[in-house]
Automatic annotation (TrEMBL):
EC code: 2.7.7.7
Organism: Denitrobaculum tricleocarpae
Gene: polA
A Pfam family matched in the record: 5_3_exonuc
Protein name: DNA polymerase I
Cited NCBIfam families: pola, PRK05755.1
Start and end residues of each 5'-3' exonuclease domain: 8-263
Domain 3'-5' exonuclease span(s) in chain numbering: 311-520
Keyword Cell wall biogenesis/degradation: no
InterPro entries for this protein: 3'-5'_exonuclease_dom (IPR002562), 5-3_exonucl_a-hlix_arch_N (IPR020046), 5-3_exonuclease (IPR002421), 5-3_exonuclease_C_sf (IPR036279), DNA-dir_DNA_pol_A_CS (IPR019760), DNA-dir_DNA_pol_A_palm_dom (IPR001098), DNA/RNA_pol_sf (IPR043502), DNA_polI_H3TH (IPR020045)
């Protein structure tokens, strides 16, 4: 080794490759000022992992200085077709270089040369100085540099690439890779190559003729006529291609290799960078290495990304007892269940994974089957198998019988002194409840993430593991296959099941240790502890209860819809003058705009006319019958397929009820969403839509009770925006829409035209959604100028609304989020975007989110308190559904009056004592044999 080089091993990092991997691998996120930072966050995590995993004493990060290099001088088309960088990535390029310097690493780039050329030059210099080289990149172009003491490290797969791997990839040794690439070309970089020759053929030719120039000189010898002709005609392109792909190893670099010795970062500089970009979880993970203490009170070990792990397959009761004892000792255990499907109400339990410490987890199989037993189970139409597999064949997996494992686990999972932690733990609670386990108390890492960073990114485990640890989790398809060959988890071999399931518990535990302390530092403890966490068992109970559905009503409606669809189809074909596929936008567009010559036809990029609902509604408003009938047909077709047909299939055969699933961590405002099936989107503005609710019925001897907040968002708008006149109108119980119409349009309340009131209602609700003149005009079917005048008159009458809107937008731009009255943070990344459409969306969200989010918090608080209030009153009502501002109950007929009074009181006082509203909340109640009657 040269005395001038202070290290014997150097890592040359392909920084540009890291940038794009981080950008596309991490969900969108922004820092407080709205600047996108997902690539910066991912890049920072990757640097941390690389520096922690490799103790080399030499490091440098190499970047591309720009799109063009010396190659464009002799081949201008080089990389010419590459698209521009995504708009959200551009401001992150500079920040990533800042991150590099914050870690005290050399950040190297040079105009006129690509990062690969600099890497090639430094690799040569290091090799000549006797220094071992590791190039950190998955770029195939760098494989030409591989030789003894020069290897590639693929950061995505964490595997070393030497001569053997290059031979497998290209079919030639590293020194001939450029010849193969020259022949095959590269469409991504616009390297022409020789037509008709791919990597495999190129490797055969180079191995036979030795090198590119020899091949081109002897091209006449090629036996295949077309290949021979292409090699002769395109010989010069092949030579140009070789110059394009061959890396330059003698770049006159400005930065000397001897300056790349590894130095520890300055903790205060690194902390300042991390704080500026809002990387709180990284600060917590790095802890004392940053100086100034560990704000989250976490050890570096606790949040370290998964590296070495000890996962145990638990197949005996003694081993399980040992893990249960550990959970009791620690007072906290992470749990995850594996099942035969995604429906928690019907899937069988296959196994349970547990973890009490980072890097240590177990998997307890209880329902894995032999090949023979699995085949038998597939053909069995019987009920739930609670005891587990009983097949005695030789290939039956060794496992504890399910009922015995359940009996052993039940005490610790129900022990109030042991906290159970899960990722989307509601699913596990519902599954285990079907086996007699009422799991409590609980924590949920998905909800911790959602409360802390709602709106910034997704909160699934895969996203969180990548986001916080730079770790790619094992995917379900990796162990169970995909497509038609995918198997259910009970058929997954135990060795694969162990790694997959135990990792889930391990990662969940790591996330919990990282995120839970942030409730305090981010001041989100109240939202989590008083709203989101206590709501989990309430939702689990509602989902398990389900709602009864009358299949006969749905069947009759489906038949009716089918008959009416057939009639509409006949009418539509008659109006069109010929038959066509009504559900085909392309065919419909041709009918409307080519054959019937109706106005307003606009073609999209595909060449087909746009036929969306807005276009058809506009044509229908002009008096054209065909688009009006198509709208009717579309509405009926959707109702039939989405509801009356599919709901029949979703009735649980054991309970006769539909069990929807509520998602807490989807909508950034805090609203719940319903899926499988979505019962919140059943249309109620049309007669046909309202009829669907008739199929949702009460059990014999009961009725359905619907209790709905009256105009809660308008009431909260009066409170949050501090509009005294609106507040007073609500206090006096006046008709708020009539009052608005009177004040904005100057008409008396008495004898008001219902149309005027409807316009005022549209303005009232539109304003709190940040509606534009265009949007209001579209809603009311009036000219935009008229809509603009309505909005101006509204702001003149209620100036506080305008002031609130401007204040909300300014606060959101400053902080990157808005808050509800209960302190929930709703991050709105779009507020800082340059794209006008996205920015306008962000501004509308900033106006509405505090109002809608507070309404969501209010009803969640009510949902948590209602079951306890009913139990205290000795009432037997069951809460079945939540649909935005409405709660639906199944109530014994004799208890209707008392239940109504209890529920209304809880809902109307859901803010007390946490929040004293100056505007009263009002809950209206309705009762009926079915949902339509009750609402």
């Amino acid at each position: 080794m040269s005395n001038s080089i202070p290290f014997n091993h150097i890592y040359l990092i392909d920084g540009s490759g890291y940038i794009f991997r981080a950008f596309y691998g991490i969900p969108p996120m922004t820092r407080p000022d709205g600047t996108p930072v997902n690539a910066v966050y991912g890049y920072t995590n990757m640097l941390i992992k690389l520096l922690a995993d490799h103790e080399s004493d030499g490091f440098a990060v190499i970047f591309d200085a720009g799109r063009e290099s010396f190659r464009n001088e002799f081949y201008p088309q080089y990389k010419a077709q590459r698209p521009d960088a995504p708009e959200e990535l551009i401001p992150q390029f500079g920040l990533i270089r800042e991150a590099t310097r914050a870690f005290n690493l050399p950040s190297i780039e040079m105009k006129g040369y690509e990062a690969d050329d600099l890497i090639a030059t430094y690799a040569r210099e290091a090799k000549e100085a006797g220094v071992k080289v590791t190039i950190v990149s998955s770029d195939k172009d760098l494989m030409q540099l591989v030789e003894p003491d020069v290897e590639l490290l693929d950061p995505m797969k964490n595997i070393a690439i030497g001569e053997e791997q290059v031979l497998d990839k290209f079919g030639v040794k590293p020194d001939r890779v450029v010849d193969v690439q020259a022949l095959a070309g590269d469409s991504v970089d616009n390297v022409p190559g020789v037509p008709g020759i791919g990597i495999k053929t190129a490797a055969q030719l180079i191995n036979e003729y030795g090198d590119l120039e020899s091949l081109l000189n002897r091209a006449e010898e090629i036996k295949q006529p077309k290949r021979r002709q292409n090699l002769i005609e395109h010989a010069e392109l092949a030579r140009i291609s070789r110059r394009l792909v061959e890396l330059k190893r003698d770049v006159p670099v400005d930065d000397d290799l001897s300056g790349f010795d590894r130095m520890d970062p300055d903790g205060s500089v690194l902390r300042a960078f991390l704080e500026e970009n809002g990387f709180r979880s990284i600060i917590a993970r790095l802890g004392e290495t940053l100086g100034g203490g560990n704000e989250a009170g976490q050890s570096a070990e606790a949040e370290a990304a998964p590296g070495e792990s000890e996962y145990e397959l638990v197949q005996t009761k003694d081993a399980l007892a040992r893990w249960i004892a550990e959970a009791n000792k620690e007072g906290i255990v992470t749990i995850d269940t594996e099942t035969t499907g995604l429906d928690a109400h019907s899937a069988e339990l296959v196994g349970v994974s547990l973890s009490c410490k980072a890097g240590k987890a177990c998997y307890i199989p209880v329902g894995h089957r032999s090949t023979e037993a699995a085949a038998a189970a597939d053909s069995d139409q019987g009920g739930l198998d609670l005891a587990g597999p009983t097949d005695g064949s030789d290939d039956t997996p060794s496992q504890i019988p399910r009922d015995e494992a359940i009996a052993l686990l039940k005490p610790v999972l129900e022990d109030a002194g042991v906290l159970k932690v899960g990722q989307n733990i509601k699913y596990d609670m519902i599954v285990l409840a079907r086996y007699g386990i009422e799991m409590a108390p609980i924590d949920d890492t998905m909800l911790l993430s959602y409360v802390i960073e709602g709106g910034l990114h997704g909160h699934g485990m895969d996203d969180l593991a990548q986001l916080h640890f730079g770790h790619s989790t094992i995917k379900f398809k990796d162990v169970a296959g995909s497509g038609k060959s995918q198997v259910t988890f009970d058929k997954v071999p135990l060795d694969k099941a162990l790694d997959y399931a135990a990792e889930d518990a391990d990662i969940t535990g790591r996330l919990h240790r990282l995120l839970k302390p942030r409730l305090v530092t981010d001041r989100m403890t109240t939202v989590y502890e008083t709203i989101e966490r206590p709501l989990v068992p309430v939702l689990a109970r509602m989902e398990r209860t389900g709602i009864k559905v009358d299949r006969d009503v749905l069947r009759r409606m489906s038949n009716d819809f089918a008959q009416r669809l057939a009639e509409l189809e006949t009418q539509i074909h008659t109006l069109a003058g010929r038959s066509f596929t009504i559900g085909s936008p392309k065919q419909l567009g041709e009918i409307l705009f080519d054959e019937m010559s109706l106005p307003g036809g606009k073609k999209g990029k595909s060449g087909a006319y746009a036929t969306g609902a807005d276009i058809l509604e506009s044509l229908a408003a002009q008096g054209h019958d065909l688009p009006a009938r198509v709208l009717d047909w579309r509405q009926l077709a959707k109702l039939k397929s989405t509801y009356t047909d599919s709901l029949q299939e979703q009735i649980n055969p054991e309970t006769g009820r539909i069990h929807t699933s509520y998602a807490q961590a989807i909508a950034s405002t805090g609203r719940l969403s319903s899926n499988d099936p979505n019962l919140q989107n059943i249309p109620i503005r049309t007669e046909e839509g309202r009829k669907i609710r008739e199929a949702f019925v009460a059990e014999e001897g009961c009725k359905l009770l619907s209790v709905d907040y009256s105009q809660i968002e308008l009431r909260l708008a009066a409170e949050i925006a501090d509009i005294e006149s609106l507040r007073q109108a609500f206090l006096e119980g006046q008709d708020i829409h009539a009052i608005t119409a009177s004040q904005v349009f100057g008409v008396p309340v008495e004898g008001m035209d219902p149309m005027i009131r409807r316009q005022a209602k549209a303005i009232n609700f539109g304003i709190i959604y940040g509606i534009s003149a265009f949007g209001l005009a579209n809603n009311l079917r009036i000219p935009q100028n008229e809509a603009r005048n309505y909005i101006a008159a509204y702001f003149e009458r209620y100036p506080g609304i305008k002031a609130y809107m401007e204040r909300a937008k300014a606060d959101c731009k400053k902080h990157g989020f808005v808050t509800t009255l209960f302190g929930r943070k709703i991050h709105i990344p779009a507020i800082g975007e340059k794209n006008p459409a996205r920015k306008n969306f962000g501004e509308r969200a900033a106006i509405n989110a505090p109002i809608q989010g507070t309404a969501a918090d209010v009803i969640k608080r009510a949902m948590i308190r209602v079951p306890r209030a009913l139990a205290t009153a000795g009432l037997d009502a069951k809460m079945l559904l939540q649909v935005h501002d409405e709660l639906l109950f199944e109530v014994p007929e004799a208890q209707i009056e008392e239940t109504t009074a209890v529920v209304r009181e809880v809902m109307e006082k859901a803010c007390d004592p946490a929040l004293k509203l100056s505007v009263p909340l009002v809950a209206d109640a309705g009762v009926g044999r079915n949902w339509a009657e009750a609402h």
